[in-house]
Amino acid sequence: MNTFIHDTICAIATRAGGALSVIRVSGANAVAYTDRIFQSASGKRLAESKANTLHYGTLHTLADASGAREAIDDVVVSLWRAPHSYTGDDVVEISCHGSQYIAQNIIQALIACGCRQAEPGEYTMRAYLNGKMDLSQAEAVADLIAANNKASHDLAVSQLKGHFSSELQRLRQQLLKLTSLLELELDFSDHEDLEFADRSEINDLSTEIFEKLRTLCESFKTGQALKQGIPVAIVGKTNVGKSTLLNQLLNEDKAIVSDIDGTTRDIIDGMASINGVTFRFVDTAGIRTTDDAIEKIGIERAYEQIAKAAIVVWMIDGKPTQADRDDMTRRTEGKPLIVVHNKADLSAETFVDNEVAISAKRNENIQLLKEKIMEAANIPEIDENTIMVTNMRHFEALHKAMTDLQRVIDGLASGLPSDLLAEDLRLCLEDLADITGGQITSQETLNNIFQHFCVGK
Predict the structure, then answer these.
(1) How far apart are CA 91 and CA 84, in angstroms?
(2) In this prediction, what percent of the chain has a pLDDT beyond 90?
(3) For the purposes of burial, counting CB atoms within 10 Å of the CB of 267, is it exposed (0-12), middle (13-18) or buried (19 or more)?
(4) pLDDT tens for residues 140-169?
(5) What is the four-CA torsion angle of 29, 453, 52, 17, rounded to 10 degrees?
(6) What's the pTM?
(7) Degrees to nearest 5, angle at CA 238 with 234 and 244
(8) How far apart are alpha carbons 57 and 37 in whole angstroms?
């Protein structure tokens, strides 16, 4: 991404095919360029108008050498003045009819005036560079757009509001205090017996912050699952109803259902939401002894899905052998295993805590199974104030900060001098600052973050 912060940029900010399209213009010349092609019904120019106002009128092509120009569309123009806008620049948003032809003609007219086509994520990148949000909040914008369930939406809103940033800032302030005291000691290094920072206080606070960082890191597994869908493997022998169950859970005929053994030979998956949480259900090949080379590959993949899954739903028809139970218990060690009795006596009876009787074909007790799956997921209550790590970049930075802080704790125990302790504390501070962009952030890092945004955001 080649970003020129002083350019005035434009892009379509809405998807094609809707009743309306919005073209966003941002930069020092946003108002002047728009004025060249916009005729307000009131006759008043945008440059003479107050901020945070709407203006109805007609957009034209830029006048040619003879002064002639063509009308493009009747539009409504929204006007914001720097720094009180999304990007921190002057911003104009043009609402036109939803025709792609109209929107493209407006873009071409703006480019003819001097605008440049915006690159993916450039508006949000400008918001970050202009101090409207920190880097973690900017990343939350992309998460909010991509959110497909209530849980991931609430986590993105929490991060966008700055709750995660505020927690990191609080931890950094505590570390800064310790670093300042240690560096003050270095200024009086000729007095060997002089200590401004109490070593036991440093140890206690470092240990406290270390545990808080550990808690944040441990939340990453749940945060990632909520963003991408919690993986649930549906396994069992051939012809026990796995594909039928998948179709019921997804509420669509995604998997082929047949009485013929071995119909499913590869992985079939789909997303479904339960109580605002997205689950990724995976239908696997029936587990049995076979000489079919292709089916054997499918069975191996079924075992791989068991290893990858957060939850395993084991479908059985009849009573499994003790050997089967022992094998499945071994393969699912450390993760929830829900035993589903399909084609059973269809009552609301459950057998033990992790067993349930259903009829996949007749859609009976599927809701009870969903409740079991939700319970097995063990998702904490999430709202717009929840702090949870959902971003791999954040997780890696927090993990590095933990490593640096562990060296501080170990150094205190071994009596390391102040200069070495202060250096490790500085590294920890830099790791935390990397998350929010508090230090000088490389262009490569910024490009990697913003290039995945959609154009117009």
Answers:
(1) 9
(2) 41
(3) middle
(4) 998 888 888 888 889 989 999 999 999 999
(5) 100
(6) 0.75
(7) 55
(8) 10
